Amino acid sequence: METYRLAGTDLTVSKLCLGAMALGAVQDERTSFAILDRFVEAGGTFIDTANNYMFWLDGHTGDESELMLGRWLAARGNREDVVVASKVGWRPTTVGGGLDDAEHLTAQRIGAAIDESLARLGTDYLDLYWTHRDDRDVGLAETVAGMAATVTAGKARAIGASNHTAWRVSEARALAPDTVRYVAMQNRYSYLQPRPGVKLAESGHVHATSDTLDFVAATEDMALLTYTALLYGSYTRDDKPLSPQYVHPGTEARLQVLDEVATETGATRNQVVLAWLCGHPGPVIPLVGVSSVSQLDEVIDGVNLKLSAEQWRRLSDAA
């Protein structure tokens, strides 16, 4: 698997980031370990989690993903070989609470939260630490200072912003010292696009826009990780229909071209979507969670698929 050097950092990451959200919560330990082992075997190094996955399931606290990943790191003894990212900002402050009861991105909370994540993960540093949301109830300068402090304390090697708009990340970077600015964004993005301006059904999701992509491409030390890249299986599964936000004439046009390129390459729809994402300037790194090793193998083949310039442009121009 190819790798990228994240500009502005000393981090080298695989072109696929494995989302660990369901590991330890939906997937049991045996399946979770098998997925993680296969990812590393295929050349993957970049793993993403958060301090709240998956608190919304009955009987869960939000500790599950980090704890599972920590057990795997301890069992394999490979902490130095992988790039581990986690997040702060969407963990409920009370047992049984929801997103409306989430922690705020104060400097004090950020400092406490990273210590909690490090303890669950069984490590003394994170490679990349994300703000999980844009908390408008806290001054941006305070949040930036709190995130920067995790780097100066040696607890994080780099910081990024998840679910932010480009202009807010630009403002945050202007407030931070050059050595600890946000170097990555994480937003929802896939080949199919929702209707412009529509509110996504999932609370907290912020979709990447053309402004996001322009900002990432034009900013030397900035990468974009794209979550929900495969739209919950909607590209290939009849039992996973597209959400209403994606039902519009442009979707049919893009699916037609997607099927044409899939036929030309002998790949699945999912694989072409991933190859298209990887073809963006930036870089753009798909962040994908899977529930089985076979799903992971399909995803790996997708990020390794090379589209021709003509195929990539045809996909991009479809509307």
From TrEMBL:
<dbReference type="Pfam" id="PF00248">
    <property type="entry name" value="Aldo_ket_red"/>
</dbReference>
<feature type="domain" description="NADP-dependent oxidoreductase">
    <location>
        <begin position="15"/>
        <end position="316"/>
    </location>
</feature>
<dbReference type="InterPro" id="IPR020471">
    <property type="entry name" value="AKR"/>
</dbReference>
<protein>
    <submittedName>
        <fullName>Aldo/keto reductase</fullName>
    </submittedName>
</protein>
<dbReference type="GO" id="GO:0016491">
    <property type="term" value="F:oxidoreductase activity"/>
</dbReference>
<dbReference type="InterPro" id="IPR023210">
    <property type="entry name" value="NADP_OxRdtase_dom"/>
</dbReference>
<dbReference type="GO" id="GO:0005829">
    <property type="term" value="C:cytosol"/>
</dbReference>
<dbReference type="InterPro" id="IPR050523">
    <property type="entry name" value="AKR_Detox_Biosynth"/>
</dbReference>
<dbReference type="InterPro" id="IPR036812">
    <property type="entry name" value="NAD(P)_OxRdtase_dom_sf"/>
</dbReference>
